[in-house]
């Protein structure tokens, strides 16, 4: 019989399971707590009887990630991890230190099938979805490895979270559970390339997370050139979904906008963007595009980015320029795994 992934189960599900073998329900809480501290074997559950530990070990497995590479930035202490999963697949995570605490950027899939032209994660296509436990393990491992507590999470690593909807939502419920890592949903951002049906499904969940939309272009003409998903759901459809999402959740939406030299970074582009975002309570994050070896895009110069920001603000749209962290360790997601793959290719 195949073992069950216990770290992806809610406390209630564990409770239901152990009820069938006559265990009191408070044991589920104890087991759940241990799992979310990041233990790797049932034997570490010291307040659980040896007999029950053996039983659990027969029925369940504890998902974990193994550190394959760890790069620490000499500039700002950002730590980038390449993790290996049980089946040998690899994913990336980044730990960043801000004034308000530690943020981890997690992956939600191995690879990605959205195929955005500027992104290293999509180059090899989608390998598989991550389980909720594999998303959690990226956080517990970062905590253990650095002896810290993570306070914020961004689902902005490799993969499209809304293309792995059920596991992503399960992760959100687990990570915010008071007996687990207890990270408030308000401290979590989920970034999507614009999977419109997923945005509506997420609205139904009505979670107080921050929804981040990778817009990156003010017109369909430009967006379709770099983001194939725009051919399925264009900017109008996407922004309509954002408005509907906002009606339900009343949360401010973040728009990610990677500044690519001569592609989307002129004053006219900024004006058009401001016009389109009118009526949405939002914030724009301007990201100097990270060069990816396989593409010929380059980042806009700082002057352009500053002007773009000022134009947006002049038109009533708040915007910030994202600080580049870990510039010396290739911290942009998908790039480390890609570099490892290139090494293997030679
Ligand atoms: N799939 C989701 C989340 C992961 S990508 C999404 O696309 O939103 C996280 C962010 O990194 C997205 O905003 C994505 O557009 C951006 N990104 C990817 N490659 C980049 C690059 N080379 N430079 C700047 N941003 C990039
Ligand atoms: Fe996938 Fe996001 Fe990269 Fe696009 S930007 S390929 S959706 S990970």
Spatial extent as radius of gyration: 21 Å
Pattern of helices and strands: EHHHEEEEEEEHEHEHEHHEHEHEH
Residue share in helix: 25-40%
**Biggest sheet: strands side by side, in what order?**
3-4-5-6-9-10-11-12-13-14
- Treating each run of at least 4 consecutive H or I residues as one helix, how many helices? 11
Low-confidence parts lasting 5 or more residues at pLDDT below 50?
A: none
How far apart the termini lie comes to 40 Å
Strand content: 15-25%
Q: How many beta strands in the DSSP annotation? A: 14
Average predicted confidence as pLDDT = 93
Q: What is the 3D shape?
A: globular
The chain-level structural class is alpha/beta
Give the distinct bound molecules: S-adenosyl-L-homocysteine, iron/sulfur cluster
